[in-house]
Amino acid sequence: MRRLIPLLLLLVLATAAAWAGEAAPMAEDEVVEKRMVAISDEMRCLVCQNESLSGSHAELAQDLRREIRQMIKAGKTDQQIMDFMVDRYGDFVRYRPPMKSTTYLLWFGPFLLLAVALVALVRYLRRRGSRLDQGAPTALSAAETQRAEALLAQVEDKR
Predict the structure, then answer these.
(1) Domain-wise residue ranges, the chain
(2) Phi and psi (nearest 5°) for 98?
(3) DSSP per residue over 68-90, as a string?
(4) What does pTM read for this prediction?
(5) How crowded is residue 46: how many other Cβ atoms within 10 Å of its Cβ?
(6) Which one, out of 9, 73, 93, 140, has a CA that is 20 to 30 A from the CA of 58?
(7) Given this structure, which CATH class describes domain 26-98?
(8) What region does 49 belong to: left with phi over 0, alpha with psi -120 to 50, or beta?
(9) Which segments in the chain show pLDDT lower than 70?
(10) Per-residue pLDDT tens digits for 79-117
């Protein structure tokens, strides 16, 4: 009987997989859906910020995808849709914002932060090195050398 239960479970799971169908597209028109995915792949989710609009599960992303579908159905071009989103949310909504004076920080900000971090690291290491050099012990005097040798001899005698 115990061997029969896993077999029945496997049979139920196998038949459930056979009943599973292909996921229905979210839009009635596959062309609209493909175009919406292509456009939203070029946009950043404003909530997640590291995901594309098409891959995000945030409510705002779902609303924006719905809005893109409506604009596609209204006959807007891809460029018109992108311009609308940029006008509304700024250049940050694009994964590849255009190079202009307002987006220099987006383009060069990471490199600037890296350069600042490297300069700070070099300054820290130099200061640390100079502090270590200042605190380094000097050569022992003759009396200190004799005392150290006597202490070492005592330790060796105890062994």
Answers:
(1) 26-98, 103-158
(2) -70, 155
(3) HHHHHHTT--HHHHHHHHHHHH-
(4) 0.53
(5) 17
(6) 73
(7) mainly alpha
(8) left
(9) 1-2, 4, 6-27, 133, 135-138
(10) 999 999 999 988 888 888 888 888 888 789 999 999 999
